[in-house]
Amino acid sequence: MSSEGKKLFNIIILGVSFMFMFTAFQSCGNIAQTVIMNLNNTDFHGSGYTSMSIIYGVLSASNLISPSLVAVVGPQFSMVISGVFYSLYIAVFIQPATWAFYTASVLIGIAAAVLWTAQGNCLTENSDENTIGRNSGIFWALLQFSLIFGNLYIYFAWQGKTHISESDRRTVFIALTVISLVGTVLFFLIRKQEDTKAPGDDDSTNEILGESSSARNKMVRAVAAFKKSITLSFTKEMLLLSVTTAYTGLVLTFSSGVYGTCIGAVNRFGSEEKSLIGLSGIFIGVGEILGGGVFGLLSKKSRSGRNPVVMLGILVHFIAFYLIFFNMPNDAPIAPMEGTDQVAYMTPSEEVAMLCSFLLGLGDSCFNTQLLSILGFLYSEDSAPAFAIFKFVQSICAAVAYFYSNYFVLQWQLLIMVLVGFFGTITFFTVEWGAAAALAARGSDYSSI
User: Fold this and answer.
1) What range defines the domain where residue 63 resides?
2) Over the stretch 296-313, which tens digit does the pLDDT of each residue have?
3) Does the pTM of the predicted model rise above 0.85?
């Protein structure tokens, strides 16, 4: 197999591995709170919202040390070890215990930071300036298919069930654990690339994560990367983009955990309420894949820059929030195990609920593809620290959102997202206009970004 063929093979294996792992993990996150509310074991006092808050909080802090861990262990084994911890977290639901649940939440937070740092390193090692766009698109598409496959399984497994029994729970989580382990094992198929760079070549990612025979050298580079991240985080552009990034963290929490819980709590949906959680995840996935394909892989054909896509994203989300406000009972996010019989401003409609799921995914892809694009454009020389800041801010806000989801009724959660989304859109526009002006000053074509 040629060198290019080997690299493409590695990218496909990377994407398929993540697809299996996140088929399991995202399905787990989507149904965790619903499962916990149906637990008959009175000794268990955990909260799915609190668990996810811990995960994203620890993930955010762990982004500070993950580069040095990956530099020492290497990207392949970093992903394997992280995959094991992902599988252990899912396995906790087979026989839940409060201490194990929260301990696993802390461990998977660390594992997630290492996993995504290693993923970026692996993607970079197997790409060059001519293939990075294609390879990123392949990885994104394969990853987002996880939303469809996992939730399709939940939809059929829980169809017609109004209560999740102990047998139902064990069957689902044993299956999800096995699926996660399959993805972990697939990491072993990734073939190591030989270093073909000239000694003087400059590579921002290798600068931070590159191999070195000296452990001390690796730590020096990790410290340098940390200092660079601190410096970048206080630049005007990064501070403005942090508001937009914060919004994506809030939406991540709502679409991946809270909205599915709301659907599963609506008794008016009858025997379909639990299986609709899986169907909702499928529609979110379809929206993500559609948006990622149109606005990610085809972005080079756009001659209007990024602002129209972000404007579309916020409009789509505002429509979704409006319909959710009218369709979902206000107490749905914090309803007891028995669910809620309340009605909002219309009789709960399954069709409207699924439409909102699709709109949540579509709008989210609009924001994320354009954020990744503008960060890569503005910080092409310091991409690793820039993306670390992006993940740090997003994870912190996701953690905060999961925490307040334990207490806030639906209308307050929607209002917070509307306000942060509005200001996040304005700050993104401000940075994009600055980027366009800089390009114009250099005589470059705006459509090239």
Assistant:
1) 1-190
2) 555 554 556 788 989 999
3) no
